[in-house]
Automatic annotation (TrEMBL):
SMART domains the record matches: AAA
Transmembrane segments: none
Protein name as annotated: Replication-associated recombination protein A
Pfam family, one: DUF4250
Length: 502
């Protein structure tokens, strides 16, 4: 280290931000993260014994990922090298790897490589590290705010232990603020500041577990607040509120918090909890989420989770989505809240969702399923010669505009895709189907059993509905010859129709 490096180092000790100066130097000075740094925990024991293997620290900003890496740097006997993935490339890593090989070969020294924001490395950069992590040339410490299982190569993940750091508790934040105010060497103790209890409560709450945010706020407050008559700087609630204008919300539009929050929002609507749905909606809006993204999710939920139990849900969701897009914020919050609360309070059914997925899976598996000929298009010359459309029952010609008819291909004639629930409007649909099918069965039950009367009944049916001979034959469970004889008896031209039965 030359004179300039020494002076730069000394200046950083006094001029760097409070959050940086207050970083713990020893493991026992770290506040919070007891779930991984308790004295009986693996990570604590590994650091203390200087037997650390490759690890990835994952957690929100301000939870101590870099701090933990710095503590390891202070306690390990290995050489410690740090790079930031946003500013480093393959050449930087090549230089570090070469030095690590030399130090290991010549001095038997291991090298710990700390890569901050490792998720910013692309796949090829991460792949470059892989063999050197695997053979022990370097011990990797990666830090990331993103879910490593999405952002870090699975091969690197498999060779590392992932430790998740949690947001600090309010008590943890309070302890750090008090340390910052009283520590005269690293903190702001020389300013003789005092903080009111309500200000302390406010800062520890509004920072949402982000130590850096809380320390930045208290530093700003102390450095900008004039001394009182007692020569002390008083951090009141008003001062604290000025120093942190907006609550820290753990929400990023592409990371875990984004997907976790929208997931909780959708599940709250699905679970019929309007209070939770409105809360997560507010959280997304407060963090600046795209209102069209939110509106799309409400529409999806209205169709997937409400469906025909309340057909108006998709209407309300769509109308509110259009209104939100036209209005923009802040008014869009109102219509989005209306849609979310409507969907949350609506009766639930996933019948349509389950039906289409089952049908898609069926179509995907099947080789070929022929459409029944009577359902095929008959609106062109020659269709009748192909048998297309012959025997089709036109539903509106029947009572209740309903008639029993096989619409599915023969391969799936006994398959049910759509199962109506007993909720909301679907219960009414189910009752309606029971009613019209019961009436249809009553018609069939009224078919005479006496042969003479049966023949008369057949003749009447044929006169009223000449196009449905084949269907009549099936519904009566009649012998085709009986139908043909009936045709003869009433002097119909039957030769063409007879060919359908022989």
């Amino acid at each position: 280290m030359d004179l300039f490096d020494y002076m730069r180092s000394k200046n950083q000790e006094t001029e760097s931000p409070l959050a940086s100066r207050l970083r713990p130097a020893a493991l026992d000075e770290i506040v919070g993260q007891e779930h991984i740094l308790g004295k009986d925990k693996l990570l604590y024991r590994a650091i203390k014994a200087d037997k650390l293997s490759s690890v990835i620290f994952y957690g929100p900003p301000g939870t101590g990922k870099t701090t933990l890496a710095k503590v390891i740097a202070n306690t390990t006997s290995a050489l410690f090298t740090q790079i930031n993935a946003t500013a480093s490339g393959k050449k930087d890593m090549e230089q570090i790897i070469n030095e690590a090989k030399n130090n290991n070969g010549m001095y038997g020294k291991k090298t710990i490589l700390f890569v901050d924001e490792i998720h910013r490395f692309n796949k090829s950069q991460q792949d470059y590290l892989l063999p050197f992590v695997e053979d022990g040339t370097v011990i990797l410490i990666g830090a990331t705010t993103e879910n490593p299982y999405f952002e870090v190569n699975s091969a690197l993940i498999s060779r590392s232990i992932v430790f998740e750091l949690h947001p600090l508790s309010q008590d943890n934040i309070k302890a750090l603020i008090k340390r910052a105010i009283t520590d005269e060497q690293k903190g702001l103790g020389a300013y003789h500041a005092v903080i009111d209890n309500d200000a302390l409560e406010f800062l520890s709450s509004v920072s949402n577990g982000d130590a850096r945010s809380a320390l930045n706020a208290i530093e700003l407050g102390i450095l900008t607040t004039p001394r009182s008559e007692d020569e002390k700087i008083h951090i009141t609630l008003d001062v604290a509120q000025e120093c942190i204008q907006k609550r820290v919300v753990r929400y990023d539009k592409t990371g875990d918090n984004h997907y976790d929050t929208i997931s909780a929002f959708i599940k709250s609507m699905r679970g019929s909890d309007p209070d939770a749905a409105i809360y997560y909606l507010a959280k997304m809006l407060y963090a600046g989420e795209d209102i069209t993204f939110i509106a799309r999710r409400i529409m999806i939920c209205a169709s997937e989770d409400v469906s025909n139990a309340d057909p108006n849900a998709i209407v309300v969701a769509t109308a509110c989505a259009q209104a939100a897009e036209r209005l923009g914020m802040p008014e869009a919050r109102i219509v989005l809240a209306q849609a979310a609360s409507y969907v949350a309070c609506a009766p639930k059914s996933n019948s349509s969702y389950m039906a289409i997925d089952k049908a898609l899976e069926t179509v995907k598996r099947e080789k070929h399923a022929a459409i029944p000929s009577y359902l095929k298009d008959a609106h062109y010359p020659g269709a009748a010669k192909l048998g297309h459309g012959l025997g089709y029952k036109y539903a509106h010609d029947y009572e209740n505009h309903y008639v029993e008819q096989q619409y599915l291909p023969d391969e799936h004639k006994d398959t049910t895709f759509y199962h109506l629930s007993d909720n909301g409007y679907e219960a009414r649909i189910k009752e309606y189907f029971k009613h019209i099918k019961k009436q249809q069965e009553a018609v069939v039950m009224n078919i005479p059993k006496d042969p003479a009367m049966r023949l008369s009944y057949i003749n009447t049916q044929l006169r009223d509905n000449f196009s449905s001979l084949e269907d009549l034959c099936k519904s009566l469970d009649a012998d085709p010859a009986e139908i043909i004889n009936s045709l003869k008896a009433i002097n119909y031209e039957y030769d063409e129709k007879r060919n359908q039965f022989v």
